[in-house]
Amino acid sequence: MARSREGPPPNLLDLRPARLVECERTAADRVVLLRPKFTWKPLAKLLQPRLPRPYFKVHLDEIGTFVWDRIDGATTVGAIADAAREHFGQKIEPVYDRLKSFLYQLESGAFIKIPR
To answer: Is this structure's pTM higher than 0.85?
Structure first.
């Protein structure tokens, strides 16, 4: 029987997510993610500048903004969780479950990449 070369899955807390999209700030200092409507480069180059609203906008709440500000490709998910727990206290519990769900949603929407 052949063994898999992949090994065990990585621990999410050790991974370092990186941003894939730009963002802007609201007057209330909340993050708005800007995802281009076209991702295929030839089409994006041709059509994106001609659109009145070239981006899908996703407005983040206070916790989402806090997490987004720490996604930099260098900070681990564990460090983000610890900082969020310190900043928000009981409001963010269960921090690991909430953070995991949020990060996987961002990844499935192509807002971030979680290298494995």
So the answer is: no
